[in-house]
Amino acid sequence: MKAVLTAPQRQFARSIADLMYCNPFLPERIECEREALGGEFDESMAEWNLRGDIRGDHPNVRKLLERCEQLAEASREKLKRSTPRRGDLELYEDLVLFVLYYRFRDAFNEVIQSAPSARTTPSLASCYARFVKAAQRFLLPPHFAISDPSETAHLFALFFQVKRAFHFIFRNIIGISHPAARFRAAAWQSVFTHNLRRYRQVLYDKMADITTLVTGPSGTGKDLAARAIAMARYVPFDPKAGKFVDEFRRSFHPINLSALSPTLIESELFGHVKGAFTGAIKDHPGRLEECADAGTVFLDEIGDLDPAIQVKLLRVLQTRSFRRVGDSEDRHFGGKVIAATNRDLASQMRGGRFREDLYYRLCADVVAAPSLEVRLRDQPNELANLVQFIAARLAGSAAESLAEEVTTCIREQIGLDYSWPGNVRELEQCVRNVLVRGKYSPPQEPTVSLDESLARDVSTGLLTIDELMRRYCTLVYSQAGSYEEAARTLQVDRRTVKARVDLQLLGSQRRRRRHSQRDSE
């Protein structure tokens, strides 16, 4: 056996392999790029995965792709003349996969961004034929099993899935703050798990068995995250038919459980047969029945679900079967379930309003959506970024002037320290208010006790140590009644407690002053 790669080439190939299988929304992606390029790494693009305004390839990716193309071609020639070491063969395969993905990524992108039409399927068939030819050129027999049509089709489907996941997660979960980036990374893991290599080999067709629960305050984009995860599910490619077995655009089936009565929820979810109840004049298939195996049923506001329907939903998750209302025939459900809630399900369970057995069927994969307040605390420029994004969607070419008007309104009328209790949804309404009336008057912020507020924010895991100390000292002080007693409880100096409490109270006073000025206007 001979070495196909030199020691420096092997080190570069390992970095590419790590890059191929890492989460693109975590800092590790940037570290992989930096390690692979060494001194050629462009530090100006060191946080590209925090930004949603990049449409083409950035310089580091272009450099990586050029080097990978050259190394793959040179290694291919060596493979034709020798039997390589196993380790070199695996690294070469990852190099080739990197090259193949980027060669065909633009073709995938055209399909993803195009409107549904008859031209979609032929373009994919043509793309697949080119993909097979390129894959067979690099992945030479007898070293690789790419001659197996099913393996080639699987790689093609996986690449299309990766591109869809990146597109929909980046476009649905907007923000330059680290909490927003972690939100995107969590959505990526919901699709591919934390181990993409294992996903590629054995898990790609098993993720429907894992229910995803998206939690977080109202207005934080839980539905957008659910849609992104659903649109990024694996869809097999049929090489004989030259098309994917399901259309990803039709894969998302949402139900807002808080907007419907229990009877309507049951009918919408499970379907009903003619005569099942008054008004059931014909058979009606529910969302579970309409959902294909590669599809997703999204249950928004799962915490509001009636206990009787909770039992039936639990049966679906346990047995993968259900019955239409008024019917005795069992039907199969092969899709995935994503649920979302802004409620504290632990509290709901303690109060007997949410079944524990259902919760433990839902919690295999939990994605936490951060509040806008937490995002702004990490990155104040997040506000301007989101305002610009919303303005562009509403006003098109007039987005810049609208964004400037909104930013001025927030700064002068509301205050940059406003907590945005309605989160991104409230910010969207603020932009619309300014667009229509030139101002925004938010409602009075709801009163939340210190311990409830602290517990809520601690659960996000996004408080800094300084913020945690300030707020905890304030909570203990409010309960103890004096700085001395609070200091004894906390086992710190009295002056430390007073300094922390004063900082917290100062911030609260500023917020109240802003609200008072706004109300008087």
Give the spatial strand order of the biggest sheet: 4-7-10-1-11
Mean pLDDT: 88
Structural class: alpha/beta
| The CATH top-level class label of the largest domain | Alpha Beta
- Describe the largest sheet: 5 strands, parallel
Annotate the secondary structure layout.
Blueprint: H1 7-21, H2 27-37, H3 59-81, H4 86-113, H5 120-138, H6 149-172, H7 178-192, H8 196-203, E1 212-215, H9 222-231, E2 237-238, E3 243-244, E4 252-256, H10 262-270, E5 271-272, E6 284-285, H11 287-290, E7 296-300, H12 307-319, E8 321-322, E9 331-332, E10 336-341, H13 345-350, H14 356-362, E11 365-368, H15 372-378, H16 382-395, H17 399-414, H18 423-437, H19 450-458, H20 465-480, H21 483-490, H22 494-520
Helix pairs in contact: 1-2, 1-4, 3-4, 4-5, 4-6, 6-7, 6-9, 7-9, 16-17, 16-18, 17-18, 19-20, 20-21, 20-22, 21-22
Give a verbal description of the structure.
The structure is a single chain. By secondary structure, the protein is an alpha/beta fold. It folds into 4 domains: 7-147, no CATH class; 224-368, Rossmann fold (3-Layer(aba) Sandwich); 372-437; 464-520, no CATH class. Helices cover 58% and strands 7% of the residues. The chain is built from 22 helices and 11 strands. The protein has helices spanning 7-21, 27-37, 59-81, 86-113, 120-138, 149-172, 178-192, 196-203, 222-231, 262-270, 287-290, 307-319, 345-350, 356-362, 372-378, 382-395, 399-414, 423-437, 450-458, 465-480, 483-490, 494-520; strands spanning 212-215, 237-238, 243-244, 252-256, 271-272, 284-285, 296-300, 321-322, 331-332, 336-341, 365-368. The strands form 4 sheets. A 5-stranded parallel sheet has the order 4-7-10-1-11, with helices on both faces. The chain has a two-stranded antiparallel sheet with strand order 2-3. A two-stranded antiparallel ribbon has the order 5-6. Strand 8 and strand 9 (331-332) form a beta hairpin. The N and C termini lie far apart (82 Å).
